[in-house]
Design brief:
Layout lengths: L1 H10 L23 H15 L6 H11 L7 H8 L12 H4 L4 H4 L3 H13 L5 H18 L4 H12 L7 H4 L13 H10 L3 H10 L4 H15 L5 H9 L3 H13 L5
Length: 261
């Protein structure tokens, strides 16, 4: 889960100031956590509180109230602030950026896919919102279980129909801001597939532009599992930028579900 948070923090300064290169400083005074980190931790908190039946909606609303200025989209903000509001058929990439904890809490493919569906469906109950969350969760699960990149790629393409064969060099020149799952999850997974290490995965994800913090969040989640952790030089500055409450929840989850498993 820390890989997802690291991608978010590093990408935070580039979301509205895109770069088309991998050469940029990882951290600046403006680097911060956003809604991606808050809701990833909320997914983890829901699992820690009720492992048998996590209440994702309650956890998302709770951490939204604690951190209301983290950059949520308007539809999520309205949902979170409205008691009892139903899901709103979103196919945005919010379902994918917050899902990675489910791939540590359970080991079976079927169970993880169902958990990913449940975490997404609290808000993002459109089929594309579900698909994005499930594809991300499955990639993290397979990566932490030792699968190779070719196998991960084949499973995601076969199950979800995403085309992961387009090189970033071909994507980067014309890629623009796209917050849909179908327009950002495959690109994030491609960044992971091309990377030789965690830092490179995050740099590649940010280098295509678009919704940089979320794309890096998704790529970072898979890269952490595949490369067996987040380098200390990245981990420490990221944790230092989290409020103590978020950092504590993240630590509790990592202690309960370590990476690698």
């Amino acid at each position: 889960m820390l890989g997802a948070i690291a991608g978010d923090v590093i990408g935070s300064v580039f979301e509205w100031h895109n770069v088309k290169t991998t050469e940029f400083p990882l951290f600046s005074p403006d680097s911060t956590f956003t809604d991606d980190s808050v809701l990833t931790v909320a997914t983890a908190a829901a699992i820690l509180e009720r492992p048998a039946a996590p209440d994702y909606a309650a956890a998302y609303r709770d951490l939204f109230r604690r951190y209301p200025d983290a950059g949520y989209g308007p539809r999520f903000r309205h949902w979170a602030a409205t008691h009892g509001a139903p899901p709103y058929r979103s196919y945005g990439n919010g379902s994918a950026m917050r899902v990675s904890p489910v791939a540590y809490a359970w080991d079976g493919v079927t169970t993880v896919l169902e958990a990913a569906r449940a975490s997404a469906a609290a808000t993002h109950d459109h089929p594309e919102g579900i698909r994005g969350a499930q594809a991300t969760a499955l990639a993290v699960l397979l990566a932490r279980q030792g699968a190779g990149k070719a196998h991960i790629c084949a499973e995601i393409e076969g199950r979800f129909g995403y085309d992961l064969g387009i090189p970033l060099a071909a994507i980067r020149p014309s890629y623009a801001f796209d917050v849909t799952c179908q327009g950002s999850v495959p690109q994030a997974l491609r960044a992971f597939l091309e990377a030789e290490g965690f830092e490179e995965a995050v740099r590649l994800a940010i280098s295509i532009g678009g919704d940089s913090d979320t794309i890096a969040c998704i790529a970072g989640a898979v890269a952490e599992a595949f490369f067996e952790g987040v380098p200390e030089a990245i981990r420490d500055p990221v944790v230092a930028r989290l409020p103590p409450h978020l950092a504590l929840l993240a630590t509790q989850f990592r202690e309960r579900f370590p990476c690698p498993a």
